[in-house]
Write a structure and sequence with these properties.
single chain; alpha+beta; Jelly Rolls; 6-stranded antiparallel beta sheet
Amino acid sequence: MSAETDALTALESQMDKAHIRGQWQVGVNRPENAQHGPDGKVWIDPVAKAKPFGWRWRDMEPILEGACTALPESATARRSLIYMNPGLQMGTTQTITAGIQVIQPGEVAWAHRHSVSALRFTIQGGNDVFTVVDGDVLPMQQYDLILTPGWCWHDHHNQTSRPAIWLDVLDVPFIAGLNQNYYEELGERMQDRRNDAAALTSPLLRPTGEAGARARPSCRYAWADVLRRLDVLAADAPHPVDGIALAYTNPVTGGSTLPTLTCTARMLPPGFSGQRLRCGASTVHFVVGGEGRLDLDDSSIAFGRHDGIAVPNWTWHRLVNTSASEPAYLFSVSDRPILDAFGLYREQLDETNA
């Protein structure tokens, strides 16, 4: 053993006792995913722990029914079924948790608030299904989007004769990774309301809050409005990656839907086959209608109405509408605002697939 090796061994032993680690010990410069060019140059791309994965509605539906039977009263936790990514211990992607929540007829999901931001995309609702956000009553018609921004009081109500069902999307893994997960219960099952659900007949999104208040909009985006906007956009040629795409903008800031999550409605025209892309953001798609598939490097995920799909960051993929006659509609949630905030977002198009 050389003197240099002896010295390094002794140094590392001394460092270990002092809880110090050298960069050469953890492979930061030469990790397993490092790639080497012919000139010897090295570059590194992210490798997502999350896997591309699809959850079929035909599997979810009987589980939802079973949850209503097995948990007739959701007393200690929401009756929420989380899309668990097979590559992760928790979460749908490394920054997003998505899943399906159901509340029974006559049930109230109690009022609480948390630092986690959340949104609800209604699957089965109506005027008598509503969420109260900081006192504002927001009806949940089918495919409406309801925001519950971080630290807003919210409770959910179902005053119909059938279960109310919606897609939940939250930034739980990101907030938990920062150790910023604050939570508080109101102490009452429901909060005081400033309006009545039946009075809110306008389908337009409705920013609320007193003048000068902190910008945390509680608002509703009506699917009927979204469809009309998509129909107008469809007069132009589709985007090569996204098809006909409409972003949900924040009514207070004009920016992303929430500080950590942004939402998009997509219409894929009949026969649409998108250009392949990989990007730094991870995305969860929910299929509103139609059918198609998500093509990956060496596999694909078929999708149909009410299926959910996770696309991890820096994963080659493209969207395809497999119907020659009917459009496909997707509601999509991405963590891109997090990356934009730190100047980290990047994307790469597959020019061979153009």
